[in-house]
Design brief:
Elements lengths: L2 H22 L8 E2 L2 E2 L14 H13 L2 H13 L1 H4 L9 H16 L2 H15 L2 E2 L4 E2 L13 E3 L6 H11 L2 H17 L10 E4 L6 E5 L11 H18 L2 H17 L21 H19 L2 H26 L27 H15 L7
Antiparallel strand pairs: 1-2, 3-4, 5-6, 6-7
Helix pairs in contact: 1-13, 2-3, 2-5, 2-13, 3-5, 5-6, 5-7, 7-8, 9-10, 9-11, 10-11, 11-12, 11-13
Bound molecules: glycine.
Amino acid sequence: MDGQKWAQETAGKIKHKMRIVAERNRHKIPYTTIDGVFDDWSGDRICWWTNGFWGGIMWQLYHATGEELYQEIALESEDKLDANLMSASGMNHDSGFRWLPTAVADYRVTGSRKSFNRGLLAANDMAGRFNPMGRFIRAWNDDGDGSKAGWAIIDCMMNLPLLYWAYEQIHDPRFLQIATMHADTAQKYFIREDGSANHIVSFDPVTGEFLETFGGQGYAEGSSWTRGQAWALYGFVLSYVHTKKDSYLNTARRVANYFIANTPESGLIPVDFRQPADCTLEDSTAAAIAACGLLEIAGQLEQTGELGKTESRVYKKAALKLLTALEEKRCNWDENHDNLLEKCTAAFHDEAHEFSIIYGDYYFIEAVWKLTGEELFIW
Ligand code: GLY
């Protein structure tokens, strides 16, 4: 298959549909759809971790088309996120997901000082979550009882680029030190021998001692939540992009090889690679995120000489398998429906499964843009 031709055609379909969808939803910050219509999390749900992805979609579309509409919508969502930045209890380790695709993207495109300030505030808050004894960034908050003070999660690998960005801007090495110490801890305690990843690792928050692992949003303890695997493979290659430490690229490749080996023939990804054999639940977000990570690994390997170039083809082919399966079987191209991807799942044990989720659409677009060369690099 000619991946380039496929990507150009798919990018065209995305641009056509998203022009209509953006106009129709310009004042919202969506999470999912209800009967095909985007909902809105910009009011009292502004502190939800996914609220940066709508702005991210808008910046990617703006970067690819130059159409003002997308910039206007992105700026509106960035302003709304200030309510989150001012809410101590609404902040957690997911600052990267919220402010890299919004304020930092804005700063990269326009040089806005207001956006720079927002990015730096978010990075400072994230750095403040670092536990120096365990050398990890605390993931979630709790009710003030400290029950989650020692919890770190694999998703955090995707938030580290906010700290790398802050370091690259103001050259305070603490941002780099915190990011790399967390990545080193994640390498040691999250990534298993076979290349699969734990979702949650619990440390003693006082001594920093490793305690136990939890299944989190996956099927069970010791299982293999696919979105967590995707966060790991993309997150580690991003740490390599910012630090050039070979061990991060090698870890990303190990997780990628595990992901590829477990990808079903259909190219459609289950919620957990170790869910029961008779369970057919899928998570299209995991496929889209993994595709971005595989393409990033391929891009990095291409710069490492002839052998790297040969190997990079393996990762690009695997990414195309995921993306073409999504495009053919899991994309909704009907302009009357706001979402792109279908069959996304937030967590294995939630009541609801297989609906649309905004970050699935974001990563699908980013992956296609990686192939067409239209990506605004936001991580
Ligand atoms: N970062 C939370 C999730 O992937 O659901």
